[in-house]
Amino acid sequence: xxxxxxxxxxxxxxxxxxxxxxxxxxxxxxxxxxxxxxxxxxxxxxxxxxxxxxxxxxxxxxxxxxxxxxxxxxxxxxxxxxxxxxxxxxxxxxxxxxxxxxxxxxxxxxxxxxxxxxxxxxxxxxxxxxxxxxxxxxxxxxxxxxxxxxxxxxxxxxxxxxxxxxxxxxxxxxxxxxxxxxxxxxxxxxxxxxxxxxxxxxxxxxxxxxxxxxxxxxxxxxxxxxxxxxxxxxxxxxxxxxxxx
Length: 245
Ligand code: 2AL
Fold this sequence. Notes:
There is one protein chain. This protein has helices at residues 15-28, 50-69, 85-91, 99-110, 121-134, 159-175, 191-198, 205-218; strands at 4-9, 33-38, 74-77, 96-98, 114-118, 140-145, 179-183, 202-204. The protein is α/β, with parallel strands linked by helices. 1-(2,5-dioxo-2,5-dihydro-1H-imidazol-4-yl)urea (2AL) is lined by residues 12, 46-48, 79-81, 118-119, 123, 150, 183-186.
């Protein structure tokens, strides 16, 4: 049996969300695949804007370094803004996949149009930027926010999960979309139940990204080290950034 070690990085510092993400990742991993789940030791508790993403990106790079040292052959960035994705690819030898790009790619394979359901209205704007950046703008019918912060998904009340469900039902009815993309790593445990209930594919990026990294590893493909994704040029890194050298 092929043995792979895939690192799943939650870029925020919430241990509860890291647990949700790790469980979802393990639920789809092949029998021979080990999931190494981690989150930064320092950073932001949740990622909801550009400021948060800038801080989270440093934590992601630190985790990529650690993961490689622990034998990870591929990596997943489990935050819907894909913070630090290209920088992580420079550092990594193996494949690195972000959950937003994974979910968007998968959605286009099973439907001609998809909707996105995310957390706060400001993260809708970030998701819109990613759609443009990845070339999926024409595939997305609409974006919706549950209008609750990211950590509401881990507060134990179930309110955020209920709102995700309601928004997904609304999106299916109003957008005429064939699929829905869940726009937060903390929604990873909701996809299969919603897929059953709604009768259309509801896609979580964590599980999608794990299977993509697994496929890339099976194909023997890592990150291209030709051109801009080559390892970072060696130069002195000072202060807290020394650990990245
Ligand atoms: C996210 C996410 O997936 N994790 C986090 O902390 N912030 N992004 C989002 N759109 O809710």
